[in-house]
Amino acid sequence: MPVAPKRIIKEIRSLRHKKFRQEEQAYFAEGIAIVLSALENQAPVQYVIYSPELLRSETAYEAISEARARIPCYETSAQAFMSISGRDNPVGIGAVVGYHDISPDSPSLLAYSRFVALDNVKNPGNLGTVIRTADCFGFGVLICGESTDQYHPECIRACMGALYTVPVARFDTAGNLRQWCHKHGVSIVTTSSKARDDITQISGYPRPLAVLLGSEATGLSHDVLQLGELQVRIPIYGASTSLNLAVAAGIIMYDVVSKPEFKS
Length: 264
Hints:
Blueprint: H1 6-14, H2 18-24, E1 26-30, H3 32-40, E2 45-50, H4 58-67, E3 73-75, H5 78-84, E4 93-98, H6 107-110, E5 114-119, H7 124-137, E6 140-144, H8 153-159, E7 168-171, H9 174-183, E8 187-191, E9 197-198, E10 209-213, H10 222-225, E11 230-233, H11 245-258
Parallel strand pairs: 2-3, 5-6, 5-10, 6-7, 8-10, 8-11, 9-11
Antiparallel strand pairs: 1-4, 2-4
């Protein structure tokens, strides 16, 4: 197995920064489950890198053995791998993966009837958790505005491989998202702690639909909130005044799938 040259180690370190990810149109994905998901789902993996001193998974070694027939796989020392890792206790395997953006009109996205949409979401860990949760509940993901980079290392880690199984499309603005929804007959459900309709009092939701949430700090702006044909809130019974964004998204996604299609 070839040993990773110094340029590979340097390249992976540079991919921590958005500027270099955008220049290279690639990112570093680390961890057994994440790399296996990328390989199994035919993500554009450019190469795999691993450390025999750290990696203890027979399943991972089997995947490397299969992958090296079609993509480069490099060995490196434990010290070198720890220098590129974003984890406190790295398991010793990662991959550089090319960007795999999809068009909003991609058939893989339009096959869905439920979407979770995020406007101006800044926290990459929250975004990754929402993508992972969307995978569990069968939602596509729509991102708009000045939202964080879905290829940020924290987002990749929080996705746990779901970025390779869930379609994620981006829109420049919430207005562009609205136009897309109108074009494809998708109803918009907006969320706010001040919304009139409590989800516990809603008997069903329209289909297809996009549930739109804002940033944890500021929520949806007034104008974006008004895009919702239905505006909903999650009841809070304790002293806290708000929920974590990813938790709120998970609650509403579950509420959607657990209730029937709304009939007007």
